[in-house]
């Protein structure tokens, strides 16, 4: 199978650079372990000194210029762009890590707001329909970035009481802000837009500032939580029923039913409320705080469905993954950017799909053709199938909560307890995945893999070029005739197996904090 040429993969990796990377990585592991502790001592010392100095003052948040500068410099030292971090935060007038982080969010928001007209401005400079569509993708993901940043800022309004206990949420939303901007670049790269480098330059501040905020919450605030340094920590409790306290009693009863009573029924034969999903979309309430349930009767629904971030708490269920099918055929070769090829796309929080199949029938010759694209936080796909030939399930945060955009912040794809069935009408032996980004991570664990799979298992994004050693692709406790790893690829970043301790980082509890929200979905899961 030829690797795809429409994206600009990782390119050829210089061997000397790779050796240098490995040497630096070993040193970093030692230095970071010591530095984080010292950094925390320094920051906490600065904060404590400032509070003691101002304890008799009316506003204890006013710090001296010296202590503020020292705190900002210390905090910014963990970021990928320390110079832009310091210069953007120097007017924060605080040495408190929480307040500095909060100020960093306002800096990101200001930079994103300046980009609001950017896609339209470039739309007027081109007549190429594919480039125009890529710019529309940019507009959509930049709006999503603003929404995710607003979620982050809203959480911060309560101050430190929620901060440490919800650092994973903050990381998720900020990862989305970073990745949304990368998605814009990727869409323009994909169609060979002549002004992509110009756009990257214009977005330099917003990308660096968002990356800096992500580093602060990941390495400073997260580490403070790990070291149990008190910042008014408050935990989210669970009700006696086993559900999180934020799940309403009525919602719990609804989600425990095997066949919930639908608010709307879709039936192609006319026996329901509407005949198509597109008709159903017009009837779905926006930003609903209660669950809205749609039942889709058996049949094949050939249509493309896109649900933006305003569709909250939506549940769609069918008569089985092989009985209720949502099917489309949009693809890159025929002129649609990958992001827009999805047969079904959902971005609103709290989405649940059950007993439904999602398909893109474009075929291997059409290259990128997405079956499902989800950016829904706390979403669940239960007893569903996803069928396509390439880019079947593209990664789009925040559906997966831990992202990596540099050596210290990994971008993950995680597959657990799945069945990889045989694809019909496929002339070549398929492979599991392709590493695209330099620091991508994919773990397939405790899944059933059919014997149809090419024994190599994986394919390089760039033909005849091994991915860089900075990736992590791994398998763990898979079963079935295709699960043997004896003839897999020999990339430096591929692990044919993991230790139990390594694998535990990707279980339901560690990776997605499943026990805090999955019980409300009535989906069976093993937290370990």
UniProtKB/TrEMBL annotation:
GO terms for biological process: cell wall modification. One of its GO terms (molecular function) is enzyme inhibitor activity. It holds the Pfam family Pectinesterase. Residues 67-216 form the Pectinesterase inhibitor domain. The chain crosses the membrane at residues 29-52. Pathway: Glycan metabolism; pectin degradation; 2-dehydro-3-deoxy-D-gluconate from pectin: step 1/5. SUPFAM superfamilies: Pectin lyase-like, Plant invertase/pectin methylesterase inhibitor. NCBIfam families: PME_inhib (TIGR01614). In the N-terminal section; belongs to the PMEI family. In the C-terminal section; belongs to the pectinesterase family. This is Pectinesterase 3.
